[in-house]
Amino acid sequence: MSIMVSQLWDVFTGNSNQGVEKVAALTEDFLRDRIRETSVCNRVIPPILLTEAQIERNTTNDWPLKRVEIEPDSKAFAIGFRGKGTAQFFDGRKYEVYFTKLETEHFKKSREELMTMRYPVMDVVNNNFVLDMQEQLDALFKVRLDAAGALSGVTAAPDFSTAANIAANFKDAVITLAQGIIGKRRRPAKLVMSEAMYQNLGRLGPDKLGYGDAVQRIAFGGVAPEKMFFGYEVITAINAGTTGTNGVTSVWPHNKIYMVTEPGFLGSNFILGDVQQEMKREGNILEWWAWADQGTEIGNCSSVGILTASGVTA
Predict the structure, then answer these.
(1) Which of 39, 159, 218, 238 is the right S-S partner for 134, CB 3.0 to 4.6 Å?
(2) Is 35 exposed, middle or buried (0-12, 13-18, 19+ CB in 10 A)?
(3) Residue 95 belongs to a domain with what CATH number?
(4) pLDDT of 114
(5) Which residues pair with 155 in a beta bridge?
(6) Do 182 and 226 contact (CB within 8 A), yes or no?
(7) H or E segment at 5?
(8) DSSP 8-state class, residue 54
(9) DSSP state of 38
(10) Share of the chain above pLDDT 90, in %
């Protein structure tokens, strides 16, 4: 279901609350769906929608937060038929997830401009609202992944300076990350990298991929349909590199691969209420924007590994 941009003015001509709610509902549904689909953060840790009753208060300020309990360490004991394991008492370990307001730029159009438009407003929302909000979220998530990876010590630094070096080192570097996380008694589940980095799978020969269907599929169909490597789900991002389209700074670097565990061993991702849509009219100018409150934290740093390739521009 969509609404034409030119129809927006008609909704606001009489300042009808019912009309405003109708348009807001349409765009809000689209926003909520798309932000969960496109964000790398939301694909790594599926978001959980919280209500006002589920948030908690901070002792130092009024900003909402959510406290998440951490599983206490446990021990196994070898005991005889009449023996008992020693009792272990523990304080509840928790980490706090604070919420960040993600807000789009305010989109403004005059009545005269709206009269010339013949495309669905969903296109405008997708290009100007959803993309901006998901990039804000991913930028915050990347900072947390980098910090967690530095603390975990699970790293790899292969030489990717030439195509031959990439072909020789790509697979072994990913194995190094996996072994590092497995050594901490966790199971790797997903890889996050730029789309350009993932294209390097096409450089791997049969000695790395195996003499079978995988080589044939990549040779004729490319790497795009695969989205798996070593059994791990691969999440790729187009908004990568030092500069993106029109010189806009992007989020994900080309020289890194992040390996993470399943969400239950990694961290939390909460959305406080639905995505909010605001619209108003002043004179002949129609203005609308959107925002959302979302909190994401890495609760277990040992569940993150980072490959940093040398010889590749970030």
Answers:
(1) 39
(2) buried
(3) 3.90.1690
(4) 73
(5) 306
(6) no
(7) helix 5-13
(8) G
(9) H
(10) 23
pLDDT tens across 180-234, in order? 999 999 999 999 998 888 888 778 776 666 655 655 555 545 555 557 788 889 9
User: Over the stretch 39-89, which tens digit does the pLDDT of each residue have?
Assistant: 889 889 988 888 888 888 777 777 788 888 877 665 555 555 555 544 444
Helix 17-38 to helix 131-152 angle (10° resolution) is 40
How is residue 114 written in tokens? 């709206």
pTM of the model: 0.76
Q: What's the number of domains the chain is made of?
A: 1
Report residue 262 as tokens.
Answer: 């399943």
**What tokens were used for 313?**
């521009």
229 assigned to some structural domain: yes
Contact between 307 and 155 under an 8 Å Cβ cutoff? The reply is yes
List residues bridging with 108 in a β-sheet. 287
Alpha helices, H only, 14-154: 17-38, 40-44, 111-115, 121-124, 131-152
Helical segments of 183-305, H only:
195-198, 206-209, 213-221, 263-266
238: its two tokens: 């187009």
Q: How far apart are CA 45 and CA 39, in angstroms?
A: 10
> In a 3-state reduction of DSSP, which class is residue 118?
coil
- Going from the C-alpha of 242 to that of each of 194, 252, 254, 313, the distances in angstroms are 12, 8, 8, 8
Q: Is the dihedral of CA 229, 234, 240, 242 positive or negative?
A: negative
Under 8 Å CB-to-CB from 206, ≥6 apart: which residues? 215
